[in-house]
Queue: 2 jobs
Job 1
Amino acid sequence: MNKYKELNLIAKSFFNGIKEEITILSNATALINDYIDDISWVGFYLNKNNKLILGPFQGKVACMEIDFSKGVCGACARTQEVQLVPNVHEFEGHIACDSRTNSEIVLPIIIDGNFYGELDIDSMFFNRFNEEDKLGLEEFITSLIKALKSAR
Ligand code: SME
């Protein structure tokens, strides 16, 4: 079975009954890290008063606060659209938390019309992420949003 199929099958019921957002977000990063190959960092940046604050993640130490005007994460926050970056070195203003990162995908998480935050995944490989990753991760975020809403 395709990795995203497996991941999304699990994600649909994995968080049932969990009432803490931090618990859901933490295990969401672990699930992606377990199922998705060739990634070097996966984590959440959360919208706190129009600033991105580092949330649960797996990987090396990362930037703790990111302005909406900065980097790939900032572009995702401003546009609220998926940022698929095949080569981060060609992305104007990319924030190099880890100099080994070569490609990246950032997906917005929008709950009831409000920008909640984003899922950021980095890879040491160029061109690591494509349309299949985008679709698979969007489906994952749909399950995550359902879980976050029922935790409220
Ligand atoms: N790459 C991001 C910064 C966050 S780290 O990748 C964890 C950016 O340019 O927005």
Job 2
Amino acid sequence: MRWLIYGVAGLALLVAAGIAVLAVQVIEGGPNEAGGILGQPTVGGPFELIDGDGRTVTEKDFAGRPMIVYFGYTYCPDVCPTELIAIADALDLMPPEEAARIQPVFITVDPERDTPEVMKDYVAAFYPTMVGLTGTAAQVRAAAKAYRVYYARQEPASEGSPYLMAHSSFIYVMDANGKYVRHFSMGTQPEEIAAGLREVLAAG
Ligand code: NI
């Protein structure tokens, strides 16, 4: 029996050591390192989209400023407006000179209806410096994929009513180099978002 006990104890040690190694790798690498660590997805990266004036923009156009990014669509009846208001409120809670260093970005998952003009008018209603981005179906699909955003068209319950888009709802914070820093889940209060953004600014 002794060999069995030693065997089990040894196995437990190996497992514990393995978990410790995994934990260290996760903490050191984080989920956003190039290529991901341990199969964790990267968030963000290159994108090509169209701004409210119909110009093609890429992540390079936002280099040098931390971004707060949200994906949704202008026809969204509840979640998107709520989250965009939370972003705007968070920026309003920050000292103005700090808020001015953050670029808020709203990216549509519904390019069929969200034309550049529609996006431009929509974001302006939430925050003066918020940028609304759309694109071709392929451009939007690529950007959403980069940010690990799920979306799918849902046919309306009744004929004649507008279709809805199911979509994941995370607020992403990217640093001045365009690297993922963190995200906020749906319903996060503006105070917490503001504190998180100030941390990003303080970190440089
Ligand atoms: Ni929505």
